[in-house]
Here is the input.
Amino acid sequence: MAKSVSHSNLSDITTTSGNTSNEEYGDDQPISGFRVHSRKSSSPARLSGSSPVNSLGSLPPTRFPAFSLSPDSSTTWFDGFLCGAVIDTKKMNKAKIKVWYRNKMTIGLAVLIGSFFLMNWWMLSRIQEPGRTREEIKVKWLKANSSTVSIREELEKLGRGRKPQKTIFVRLLSKAAHALAEEQNKPEPKDLWVEPYIRASSWTPCSHTRDWKPSEGDNGYIVVTANGGINQQRVAVCNSVAIARLLNATLVLPNFLYSSVWRDSSQFGDIYQEEHFINYLKPDIRIVRKLPKELQSLDLNAIGSLVTDIDVVKEAKPSFYLKYILPILHRNRVVHFVGFGNRLASDPIPRQIQRLRCRCNFYALRFVPKIQEVGALLIQRMRQNDTGLGLLDHYLVGPFSQSKMKGQKVHAAKISRYLALHLRFEIDMVAHSLCEFGGGEEEMQELEAYRDTHFPALAELKKTKKLPSSTDLRSEGLCPLMPEETVLMLAALGFNRRSHIYLAGAHIYGGKSRLAALTTLFPNLVTKENLLSSAEIEPFANFSSQLAALDFIVCTASDVFAMTDSGSQFSSLIAGYRIYYGGGKMPSIRPNKRRLADIFVKNNTIEWKVFETRVRKAVRQNKRVFSRPIGRSVYRYPRCQDCMCYTA
Here is the structure.
């Protein structure tokens, strides 16, 4: 019977007994299991059907060294096989133990590799961790923050969108994502949330002091209709106050020109407290709400009393107004300035007139209670409902800055810090810069059409003259920072991914998809639209200047304020306000775009640690404390003897 067993059966027995699967070596009696299987092997169909081996040549010679298949052997191959299996049991056990250890090592290596990939996935997925709430304050974060996709997947998906520019910093953004994930439990740089220079605290506010008599305003009336947004209007109001004092004229409460760009019908009294404005400046100039009736009916254009921006050069000196405007006042008793954007020079200005400009900006312009109340609510929610007052709260929101509620004990509390970011990347800024942002032909056509409509002079200049290329403009720091560049700057500076960030402004060019890198790496990023309910924001919905006033409050009160365009009037006014009232404890981040452009251009080769070092150095250099340079705005640089006092 033994001789009737086919070679295919032998192959099956050998393969079955030599199986190294985990299931077999998990058996408590491997040899017994082998013998039982041998006894059941009399069915050739059963054995050959499960065997992958079809010839004796496929048998490994070292696996069963006890039996011989030589034709000269005096014993049958089957008997020899059974004898060898019994005699060589110890060697069989040793061989199986070796295989068991080898399998364990393989499994261990597989677990180690799997752990590596699992950790890598965990770090990337943490970047997508949604924002949280604290102290029962419910915060509605941006929808993009709830994403669970990895940063690389997110950026690749964006690259398939209609604007391919969103993928130009994929490599650095991936490195930033890893850095933020690895360092999220590490302390942030010591000087990140503080003003690093002691000298900053040596400047104290003093423009509220006066050493002159009130002006009677005998020479006539000045009417101003200011154009632009809330920032240009604010500067125009302060400059008109200075002109009224310079010409000994009476100022009529300023009007705001309706703009097709801003589309806001708000007037002075919708944004600022009229009564406070009139009373606070009474020791300086005379202010009335309306022109006298006898002057209201005059055709100011016909009598030559209408003065537009075409008639007044930018940064006009006081001598211009004394020479050309004062005679009109004497003749017609009224002058109406239309526009009045940047129509008064920063220097040379009499010291008391300069101080009056500062006094108007920092004291006389106080937001109406409606704006103050909602501004205070935004600050409270950004601080996650922690009690305590910020340094500038009282100046910004007045009576609504009180942290004490009825029946609540006052106690010292640590205010939850937040960063405010002004991302100046609206379509008007993008189009006016003449820079390219990677969007290809579609982007070029879109921006060209916008220039034709809103900047016709610039569009015509672009057609008739050879202007610097986008590459040249960017290398000179003349292009606005893109959201991708901004998030890389913040990550390199050391802000933790858990940092709470308030994003000022709206209508970012490219929409939410353009902000995806920012919201992905910093999930606790919000706007006023996220923090306020529909009922709370509804009264401001159609008034862009009032919405900008809310942004002004939250940005000015922030622990750190970061701007992406140092030339923006909004950023300049906020930075100046923080300098004036901050006592050297309200740092602002003003990037050197020329140096950053030189760093970003090395996106494909630079390592993250080198990138961090260079970005921090470039930003730190712009944190220097210095007095106002000649010819620069006192609203942006109030550190001068006309506005502040140096006490060191």
